[in-house]
Each structure stands twice: as structure tokens, then as C-alpha cells.
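note to self — DONT lose this again. spent like an hour looking for the file last time. sequence + predicted structure for the chain T wanted, 115 res
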Amino acid sequence: VQLVESGGGLVQPGESLRLSCAASGFSFSSYLMSWFRQAPGKERELVAAIGRTGSFITYADSVKGRFTISRDNAKTAVYLQMNNLKPEDTAVYYCNVQTRADNYWGQGTQVTVSS
């Protein structure tokens, strides 16, 4: 299993970023996919998750209305569109899948929101 995140960077408050996670090595369309984040000194937290077909989606309260998770099963990719970014969104963002075999993480992509 391989999960490779991209799209992070340094932005100002109010700006947007789109994160991507390229997945391989497992039956992508069979599993729920998630985005987590971890800020310095804090525990890793769930940001958003999307079910196999996209019909199930959930968000952390802190990002509702600003972030949108989506997936493309044909491309085996999951995305996180982040709008109206705030300094408190600064963190390393991780793609995650929990299969029958194990719980897998990408290497993470840094998102920094600062003026």
C-alpha cells in the first residue's frame, strides 16, 4: 500500500489549497478514505472521511463549510479542497486508509497558514 500526498504549502489566511492523495497497492474503491492532520504539540485528528462511493462524507466541526473531500475511484485518488484557510489549520496533513490488513498513512504534506 502506498499513499502519496501533495499540494501543501504556505498560504495567507483566507486563501485556498487543494491536497491530493495518490493511492496504490490495494482495492481503492473498496475502502473509506480519510484525511487527518497533526499540528505541533497536538494529537493527530480526523479532518474528513469519504465512503467508497462518495455517498458517505463526514467532517470535523472545525472545517465544516470550508473543506470539501472528494475521490476519484478511476484515478485511485482522494482530494481535500480547503477554502478560507485559517492559521489554526496549520498542520501536517495525512492521507489514511484502514484495510483489513492494516492501517496505512502517507508521509504527510505541510500546510502553513500565516500572514
